[in-house]
Amino acid sequence: MISSELQEIVAISDRILVLSNGLKTGEFMGDEIQQDTLVLASYKGHHKDEKKES
Question: Which of 2, 27, 28, 43 has the fewest Cβ atoms nearer than 10 Å?
Answer without folding.
Answer: 2
